[in-house]
Design a protein that fits this description.
The chain is α+β, with helices and mostly antiparallel strands. It is built from 4 helices and 7 strands; from the N terminus they run H-H-E-E-E-E-H-E-E-E-H. A hairpin with a 6-residue loop joins strand 2 and strand 3. The radius of gyration is 21 Å and the shape is elongated.
Length: 177
């Protein structure tokens, strides 16, 4: 019986003999696809501990979310985060004001990846502008007293030790005993 590594080597040799366009199509068929979004955790630079974070109430308007959205074609995650923050809140920051959150990429089970950034702005002098259609309301909330969050937002914030799921696994499972 042939060894697996030699079978794999033969497969790669055949693959790399194919024209580039055919190889790309084969890879696109075989590799999982993800939707990529950009999210910004906007903290109030003036707030005393435990701090405040900017949240949005979007349609249908019952729960709160973060400034976020899908990347446009060929848009970098940083540029997408800055664009979405400006579109949804009116906050326009230069790109160096955004820092990659740790972790910077959060892979969700449903086939999307969020690239997460952090920014700090003084809430007292930062005007929030919402359009009333995509975003109903933008408001600052204390980290120890968050309003009802969307499930996706609660799970994302848990990766950063924030919110009702912070003491559980980000997927919603309680920690092991």
């Amino acid at each position: 019986m042939p060894r697996r590594s030699s079978t794999r080597a033969v497969g790669y040799k055949i693959f790399y003999r194919l024209p580039l366009g055919v190889r790309r199509r084969l890879v696109r068929l075989a590799v999982p696809k993800y939707i990529v979004g950009a999210v910004t955790l906007v903290y109030d630079a003036e707030a005393a501990a435990p701090g405040r974070i900017l949240l949005l109430r979007q349609p249908p308007g019952r729960k709160w979310t973060l400034p976020a959205g899908l990347l446009q074609r060929r848009e970098t995650p940083l540029v997408g985060a800055a664009r979405e923050l400006h579109e949804e809140t009116g906050i326009k920051l230069p790109l160096p004001e955004f820092q990659p959150a740790v972790p910077n990429a959060v892979v969700h089970l449903k086939g999307w990846v969020d690239m997460v950034f952090e920014a700090r702005v003084p809430a007292s002098t930062t005007e929030l502008v919402v359009d009333g259609a995509e975003v109903f309301e933008a408001a600052w909330h204390r980290l120890d007293g968050l309003p009802p969050l969307s499930t996706a937002t609660a799970r994302l914030l848990a990766h950063y030790g924030i919110g009702p799921l912070a003491e559980t696994d980000p997927a919603g499972a309680p920690p092991p005993s």
